[in-house]
Amino acid sequence: MPHPSAAAPARVPETTTEASSAAPLWRRVLLDRFGAHHPRTVRILGTHGVPAAYGGFETAAENVALFLRDAGWRVVVYCQVPGTGPVTTDTWRGLERVLVPVDRDGWLGTSQFDLKTIAHAAAHDDICLTFGYNTAVFNVAQRLLGIPNVINMDGIEWSRARWGKLRQAILYVNERIGCFVGNHLIADHPVINDYLRTRAPARKITTVTYGAPTVTEAPTDVVEAYGLVPGRYLTLIARPIPENTILEIVEGFSRRERGVELVVLGGYKPDEDDYHRAVVEAASPEVRFLGGIYDPAVTAALRFHSLAYVHGHTVGGTNPSLVEALGAGNPVLAHDNAYNRWVAGEAALFFSTADDVDAALERLVADPALVARLGEAARARHASEFTWEHVAGQYEQLLLPYVDPAALPREEHQ
């Protein structure tokens, strides 16, 4: 799912090759299936591709891909590019990119891209690592052809209020299909794992979270360019929708003068959206709306120099933005739910209402020792669970048995 600070993709390959072979499909299939090929090849599907430019899934795919490359794998990443024409290939940082042109926007474009990428991958017998289940109906092809497919099942996407009834129904059906056709399923949070166990056998589900880099320093000039004082503001990065409880956060913060600022990132259009308007109207003069900021270096610096990170997400499993805050050593003020409690642990104070936000902020602003203790807990929590080395290593362990099928439990062959 796109992050609120997502940018348009910059496709700058290191080297470019010719368009995909014009040989007949049957010949390419025979060459691939019976000719010489790299013993450890994985094809990554379901994201916009690399380099990452769209948020959590893309960032995860890129980091996993680079880790596998360093571990000696041949990694093929399917990348969505605008336009029409043939599928082409190039390389980027040692990764093979398959560039798939798509001439539609939105969900239709995503479906077109997924159909093309799955058809391309199905012409090979390599392991597939698929991020997301939105078009799992197409993954039936891999199942029928006996191509191993490990699927990251994302959150319980069909249940989110922001989707209309039709899209919720489509997502629900595809979730069921994904649980059936995937050889193994990845849950990004223990709560998601528990949920998936109502859909598939526990033996085919593994919890693997998102990762984030460890941030130990960041330039102050980036922060000062926005008129902010390091350590004298809080950061909130979230899509401006009700399920992220931004209104409650802003209302609670604005109950009184704080002596610190609340920095809110995201695209707000109060003239077009009732919820956006309510958030803006509830804000005190100490609330700063900086708009969408798309540079990861800037968002990392904003987090690193903030007094605390405010996280209002109520659904969705392990949230990448929260993990990034832990990696920056941020004390956290988070909405009180099972998702956030497991991720943030001892690094957070929790809230349910605007009154809770008000009370927690009073504690944070007045108690430097509390801030320091929460920050230390954030770094410890990140180091224990959310480094990319740890996360990507877990992905590799899930993929390795498919290189040696004898190592797989019998039921995962089926």
Automatic annotation (TrEMBL):
Residues 311-396 form the Spore protein YkvP/CgeB glycosyl transferase-like domain. It holds the Pfam family Glyco_trans_1_2. Transmembrane segments: none annotated. Residues 40-212 form the DUF1972 domain. Keywords: Transferase. InterPro entries: DUF1972, YkvP/CgeB_Glyco_trans-like. Gene3D superfamilies: Glycogen Phosphorylase B (3.40.50.2000). GO terms for molecular function: glycosyltransferase activity. This is Glycosyltransferase involved in cell wall bisynthesis. It comes from Microlunatus sagamiharensis.
